[in-house]
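Below is a typical protein record.
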Amino acid sequence: MSVFVFADLLKPSAHEGAKVVATWDRDFLSDAPACTEHVVGNGKAVYYGSFLDHASTQYLLRRYGRELHLSPLLANLPDGVEVTRRTKGETEYYFLLNHSRQNAAIDLGNRFHDVLAQHAAPAHLLLGGQKYVVLQ
């Protein structure tokens, strides 16, 4: 991991249960602990010793997502496309937002209905730059 703005000099104590899960990869903190975790009851406390940058956030989300056997709401989304899911009763709604200025090609399959356009969503959706769609 790379230092972003500042970094705490972590000195985790193994006998107190802290485990190093990532180290800094450069500068004066090279190979020093960057992130620790400590199991507490049924949970886990994670301490990251800096501001989170994009790469560090992705690393931590992948690490703990795998550990919890999480899977993405929609697989293989292009960079810049965000998806969230909301439920109302038994109905699930998916909000796809394209934060990019470029069009985004999204493979949806044939399982969604476009709520705003009130018709079946195409299997291969081309979501315009800075546009959104609500699917059911």
Notes: The chain has a mean pLDDT of 92. The two ends are 38 Å apart (CA to CA).
